[in-house]
Amino acid sequence: MTVHVSLQGLAPAPASAIIVSDERPCHVEPREALLDQAFGADRFEKTSERLREGRLPADRLALVATAGERLVGTVRLWNVTLGPDRPALLLGPLAVDGTIRSAGIGGLLMREAIERAREEGHRAVILVGDEAYYRRFGFSPEKMERLWMPGPVERSRFLGLELVPGALDGALGLVSPTGREMPRWQGLELGRAWRIAA
């Protein structure tokens, strides 16, 4: 599915429309460049990265926004478990080209990702991010108090969204990765972006 949004009147506008679609192999290099631009070189040190490294994103939940041939936004969701036996998704990173950040592309990516997660039967999504931004999509620190990440996280930025009412009730324990492991050849091809242990 694609989503079109007009960028007429914006400067600099990379094209007349934004298309949100599935990430493809040709998007890997520009995606990594966009993430470097948005988060800097220390992005691999973040606690959330411990849940992503060496893993593939959840099925149908790696999305990009493009303007013509140019990649201008990205979001991915990852399979995790909350405590020993509660499946969920970890959202992130979400990034948008800084030259058109006010065009609503992040919102488009978020809404499409959340709707797809719901369609795929997922029950809850968690993330580490700015509550002032993510609350518009339904994220909140409520029900996250007894969960912890595999590293330091500001509690006020540890947010959850129930796709099914009650999905986070009583959630307790360590958030752990459960997604498919990335094939070693693919990890080597992506180089520094994926820190696959030998």
Automatic annotation (TrEMBL):
Matching Pfam families: Acetyltransf_1
InterPro entries, alphabetized: Acyl_CoA_acyltransferase (IPR016181), Bact_Acetyltransf (IPR050832), GNAT_dom (IPR000182)
UniProt key word Acyltransferase: yes
Keyword terms, alphabetized: Acyltransferase, Transferase
UniProt KW Acyltransferase keyword: yes
Coiled-coil region list: none
Residue ranges of domain N-acetyltransferase in the record: 18-160
Gene Ontology molecular functions: acyltransferase activity, transferring groups other than amino-acyl groups
Protein name: GNAT family N-acetyltransferase
Naturally occurring in which organism (per UniProt): Phreatobacter cathodiphilus
